Amino acid sequence: MDETRQLNALDLFAGAGGFSEGVNKAGINIVAAIEFDSQIANTYKYNHPNTQVILDDIKNISAKTIHNIFQSKKLSCDIIFGGPPCQGFSMAGKRIRSNTTFLEDVRNYLFKEYIRMVKSLKPLVFVIENVPGILNYNNGSIKEEIYNTFEDIGYKVDSRILCATDYGVPQSRNRAIFIGNRLDVDPSKFFPTPTHDEDSYITVYDAISDLPEVSAGEGLEKTFYSKNIQLTNYQKQLISSKGYVFNHESSKHKPQTLKILSMIKQGQTMKHLPKEYQTKSVHSGAYGRMEYNKPAYTLTTRLNTPSVGRITHPTQDRTITPREAARIQSFPDDYRFLGDITSIGMQIGNAVPPILAQRIAEQILSILSQIDNIETL
User: What are the residue numbers of the active site?
Assistant: First the structure.
């Protein structure tokens, strides 16, 4: 491939733009993105002003519309990436009993829309991010169906579970990644090699220890950094040259909640409380306090609700702020989230960690750079 040619991409189900942020950092131009939620799209637009964002349900968008966007800029759609939500996946048992395949299930129409875009736009490479269970459910039948569908339209596909901690993200977040290409390249080559192991994992301390302390219910939308703080290498990667961050505001908690949080030590959860303080919760990590010396568990989308998981600050009696969550997801401090706390929680919690996305994109670029005459394919 001509080293001077920049590759161009389309982001489907773009969310707040975590996937785009990493792909762009790798050097790929994000030409267009699709997102149907207006609050979330506002965050994407704010942080990716050079990308054309289409605010609509993907089923209403023709591939020709996307093609025309690229063609108007005299660009080709080289890469498509995104994580199509699968509403029917959690009820897969019912689907199996009714003999309906994964892609025939009407609740999974978004996955079919992703396939439609790939089939019509014919990118060199596509990347799909999804829940880990999609790879092994029902003895791998869903994975096989996805493989066969893409192979029928000319793509070789491979998949695996990638853990974000293995790539420099301070969070034990497992995601299923499918990568396909129409270049007759072994698709397994497109997966990045891990950069970290248990001896070098980025910890919660590495991620958030420099951010100013805030009490529950306090903080500012715009917060200046603490002065004379020694930064970790990870923090140096993410800090803003502006001298301040956005979204470092703590949610307010009820007195009873604050009392419960004050009794929980690092690494503990509600089950470590005296019986009279334990409440019924379906979440095993309810009221869990993070440990400074380890990566975080997978973040939830409800950042202001301690009963849903291990989202309590390691040393302060409150849930983590959106900025702390963004750090744990590997968003740079320049990245600003717009909307109410419910939407912002979804934006951060559902995002693909940018650093993980960057590693995937860099590996794709590495493989494509070895292919001659790629412009003619």
Answer: 86
